[in-house]
Specification:
heterodimer, A: alpha+beta, Aldehyde Oxidoreductase, domain 4, Aldehyde Oxidoreductase, domain 3, 3 domains, 20 helices, 30 strands, B: alpha+beta, Alpha-D-Glucose-1,6-Bisphosphate, Chain A, domain 4, 4 helices
Chain lengths: 784, 158
């Protein structure tokens, strides 16, 4: 139900940008309170070591140090954290939970685990005090290699488990063995997709302030999940939920790691503020971020694809190892995403997918933009490329022949998704996506004219075209409260936090259409538990789907209230009302109208009687929880030029055709895609965390860990297609991760196409000029 | 990290041996060594300060234990250095062989480096350690030549 204004679907300039661009947006580090203390953490230099002793006495004596805490000082507060996401109930699933405690008591399990916390009058003093402490660490052999970790006799990350196996699950659909037997061609390969950092521009930060007089704890936190953090802190500290207020202000990028609960710092700062009765701040530095913030994941896949001679998919079998790092607080979310997303846009009659999750002495793995989806997409898209090569088919053609047809929806893949619901694609229309991308990148002409011409000039150009699906907008639920204030201003409050997604604008657009008001007159509040205390957070590309729909439902309720009141006030026949320009009027009789603000005043009478059950004000709260996630989809295509000498790759063009259902704000969707592609390009060719055999991270700085710059990321050419989701009244699907998911697969295909060497196969991501050069040399060797 | 190589001294193995096991000489020769004392016949303790790329003047408390001594041919050093910016630990094998009236020293060290020095200094670590070692060995060589010259003079005087 939308008004005449038609805000939905318009590229309304982001209303939050004025504050952001003029430096008036509040970030955690902008919080300055009288008497503020500062924190630094002593972190382990070893990846795996027994803590035999920790002498902090000299640090405690340093002038300016207020307190130093070790595990022993925490007393009963020393306990391991919760498993945030219960494992998906796949039949026969094995899951060994191991979660982190705030400070190391007995054993260090990854580099950078915190050993002690210093609270001081300034960060300088706190950092200096770190040098006063002596940690007696007995180094243990580190668990780094995934296969070695599972071998008998391997050192154990968690001795009590007796194994480094964190989880194991198999999901099946159809009869893969029969499919394999019937196949004309089976291609099998080993793929490796390595670790990266989320590298948000703003590191994590926390300010905790316990006021002994009001007995209230206020925490500013760079979290994507303020409400669960509030509930968790109350429980941890033995406070009532109403005594804890968590504020997630503006945040410079979330990308997944900031959904993690509970980071040690997130528990320790509030706890220490209660101990000391003073406000305390900690801002993570970039180096800490490489260890203390969760990361992306290494996976190793042994996968095969069975096809007929005309390229029809008969089945896929995949067995993969997943590195969860030292702990597994996030359950099976990431490997399940890999497992489910592998099926892509395709009709896959049989599927057998088995994964083993492995503990290693590396930092904790939790979802990072894409959350394992890119791994599944990489495996499937690469297998299709090799099958096409084997059958003499064009890569686009093999994809075209396997797309699910429009009548296949809803399509049940017969396995379970990360939300524990069956993996059912709600809607989609894939062939037009593919054809539009082929047309936009001018695929045929590129292959026929441009590529051969460049080759004659000694230039190596190549094209890659791949597809992806993105399971988005999962439950459980979010809520929103919409209020028309007597001043005329509309206030929208929701519990999700915001990290740059444009929620202030898109939520306002949704409400503006329902109430017929201007977007500029709507104030949107997110991420403050005092304002709204029900909900889960911003993750899984679900903001617009779940919270956006809740805003819509709440606005509809306000509208119903306004309709009832206006009908009384505007007299007989006032049933069919128009909401426009901040006024409510009788359709066809614009003179019979009343401003919304006036209705809001009338809805709050000061004297007189109202009917029983009347709620005052033009205000309503609503919640929305979908049955399951809605599935977005798209095609990425790129043209690259590879320097055959230096193995440098320049991306000449990048095309994305995508379907995230109904688009609320095209410009914001395009921003999400452009940013996602930048992430994907980093993932494909620049960003890799490099570890030595002792679990030491060898590139923990932005000097050595390369992020793509504006020069490396082309402006993405985009087209939107809209297949509305039937799972929510707005018909929306999420788009937050879309850009980052298929980039590696497209990149690999394009680079191979450019080099045109049958001996060269790209089976790993990330690449780098160095690594590509090695592969090119090896390819030549195989060819000769 | 593996650090290995050979170096030729002009003096005989016994002279080189005496030199290598003398903490005052090592302290003087190895760049960045702020102090080095013998705490037991086969144990040394000291402080070193090194600069690796962005990490400047990182101080390490160093403990060295000698073992498998076969004077004047070979010994093994176990090194354990820790500091604010990380740690280095490992074993080094040193072999001395007579060569044309002088000594050929072969060394092989397998070192584990961790913490900040590994994570932000990695690119330069190899180069820096080679450069430090090279200049240390040259300083030792000069020291040895001075000693030999002095011995020669003493002999002449005697």
């Amino acid at each position: 139900m939308t008004g005449a204004a038609g805000w939905i679907g318009r590229s309304v300039p982001r209303t939050e940008d004025l504050r952001l661009l003029t430096g008036r947006a509040l970030f955690v580090d902008d919080v300055h309170l009288p008497g503020l203390l500062h924190v630094a953490f002593l972190r382990s230099d070893h990846a795996h070591a027994r803590l035999r002793g920790l002498d902090v006495s000299a640090a405690r004596r340093r002038p300016g140090v207020v307190a130093v805490y070790t595990a022993a000082d925490l007393g009963d507060y020393w306990r391991t954290g919760p498993v945030l996401v219960q494992p998906v109930p796949v039949p026969g699933v094995v899951f060994h939970a191991a979660t982190q405690a705030p400070l190391v008591r007995d054993k260090v399990r990854h580099c950078g685990e915190p050993l002690a916390m210093v609270v001081a009058e300034s960060r300088y003093v706190a950092e200096d005090a770190l040098a006063d402490m002596v940690a007696d660490l007995e180094p243990l052999p580190a668990v780094v290699d995934l296969e070695a970790a599972l071998a008998p006799g391997a050192p154990l990350v968690h001795e009590s488990l007796g194994t480094n196996l964190a989880a194991h699950a198999v999901q099946r659909k159809g009869d893969y063995d029969a499919a394999r037997a019937a196949a004309d061609l089976v291609v099998s390969r080993r793929f490796r997709y390595d670790r990266g950092a989320a590298a948000a521009i703003e590191n994590r930060g926390i300010v905790a302030s316990w006021d002994p007089k009001s007995e209230e704890l206020v925490v500013w936190d760079t979290t994507q999940a303020p409400i669960p953090i509030r509930n968790g802190l109350a429980q941890f500290l033995g406070l009532r939920e109403s005594q804890v207020r968590v504020i997630a202000p503006f945040i410079g990028g979330g990308f997944g790691p900031k959904i993690m609960m509970y980071y040690p710092e997130e528990l320790l700062l509030p706890w220490a503020s209660l101990q000391l009765g003073r406000p305390i701040k900690w801002i993570e530095d970039r180096q800490e971020n490489f260890y203390a913030t969760t990361q992306e994941r290494l996976q190793i896949h042994d996968a095969e694809l069975a096809v007929t001679r005309d390229g029809k998919i008969l089945g896929v079998r995949d067995r993969f190892l997943h590195d969860t790092g030292a702990y597994d607080p996030y359950g099976l979310t990431i490997p399940i995403n890999s497992q489910c997303t592998l099926l892509g846009l395709y009709d896959v009659p049989s599927y057998e997918s088995e994964f083993t999750v492995v503990f290693t002495n590396r930092p904790i793995v939790t979802p990072v933009r894409g959350a394992g989806r890119q791994h599944g997409v990489f495996v499937m898209e690469r297998l299709l490329d090799f099958a096409a090569r084997g059958l003499g088919l064009d890569p686009v053609e093999i994809r075209r022949r396997n797309l699910l047809p429009p009548e296949a929806f809803p399509h049940n893949h017969q396995i379970l998704f990360q939300d524990s619901a069956p993996l059912v694609y709600d809607s989609g229309d894939y062939a037009p996506l593919l054809e539009r991308a082929v047309e936009m990148i001018d695929y045929e002409r590129f292959k026929r004219e441009e590529q051969p011409r460049a080759r004659r000039e000694g230039r190596r150009l190549g094209v890659g075209l791949v597809s992806y699906v993105e399971g988005t907008g999962i439950g459980p639920y979010e809520g929103a409260r919409v209020t028309v204030q007597p001043s005329g201003g509309v206030r929208v409050v929701t519990g999700v936090g915001t990290q740059g997604q444009g929620h202030f604008t898109t939520f306002a657009q949704i409400v503006a259409d329902v109430l017929g008001v201007d977007v500029g007159g709507i104030e949107v509040i997110t991420g403050d538990t005092r304002e709204f205390a029900w909900g889960t957070g911003t993750f899984a590309s679900r903001g617009i789907v779940v919270a956006g729909t809740a805003c819509h439902e709440a606005a509809l309720r306000v509208r119903s209230k306004a309709v009832a009141l206006a009908a009384e006030l505007l007299g007989p026949g006032a049933q069919d009302l128009v909401f426009d320009g901040g006024r409510v009027s009788v359709r066809g009789s614009p003179d019979r109208s009343i401003p919304l603000a006036e209705l809001a005043r009338r809805a709050n009478p000061l004297r007189g009687a109202v009917r029983p059950g009347t709620e005052p004000g033009l205000e309503a709260t609503a919640y929305f929880g979908p049955d399951r996630g809605s599935t977005a989809s798209g095609i990425h295509a790129m043209i690259v030029e590879v320097d055959p000498e230096a193995a440098m790759v320049a991306i000449r063009r990048y095309v994305v055709v995508h379907d995230c259902g109904r688009v609320i704000n095209p410009q914001i969707v395009e921003g999400q895609i452009q940013g996602g592609v930048a992430h994907g390009i980093g993932n494909a060719f620049y960003e890799q965390l490099v570890w030595d055999e002792n679990g030491q991270l060898l590139n923990a700085s932005l000097m050595d860990y390369l992020l793509p710059t504006a020069l490396d990321v082309p402006t993405v050419e985009m087209a939107h297609r809209e297949t509305p989701s039937p799972l929510n009244p707005l018909g929306v699907k999420g788009v937050g991760e879309a850009g980052a998911i298929p980039t590696g697969a497209a990149f690999a295909q394009a680079v191979e196409d450019a080099l045109d060497d049958p001996g060269l196969e790209i089976l790993e991501i990330p690449l780098s000029p160095n690594r590509l050069f090695e592969l090119m040399q090896a390819g030549k060797g195989a060819d000769a | 990290m593996i650090v290995e190589g050979t170096y030729s001294f002009t003096g005989r193995p016994q002279a080189v041996w005496d030199l290598l096991l003398d903490p005052t000489v090592i302290a003087k020769s190895m760049p960045g060594t702020k102090e080095l004392v013998r705490t037991a016949p086969d144990r040394y303790q000291g402080k070193m300060q090194v600069t690796v790329g962005p990490i400047t003047a990182a101080e390490f408390a160093v403990e060295i234990a000698l073992s498998d001594l076969e004077p004047p041919q070979r010994f093994v050093m176990t090194i354990d250095g820790t500091g604010r910016f990380g740690f280095t630990r490992g074993r080094a094998r040193v072999d001395l062989q007579p060569e044309n009236g002088g000594t050929r020293m072969a060394y092989h060290a397998d070192l584990q480096v961790g913490g900040k020095i590994a994570s932000v200094g990695q690119r330069l670590l190899d180069m820096v350690s080679r450069a430090l070692l090279r200049s240390g060995l040259q300083a030792l060589s000069r020291e040895l030549e001075e000693r030999l010259a002095q011995d020669g003079r003493t002999e002449e005087a005697g």
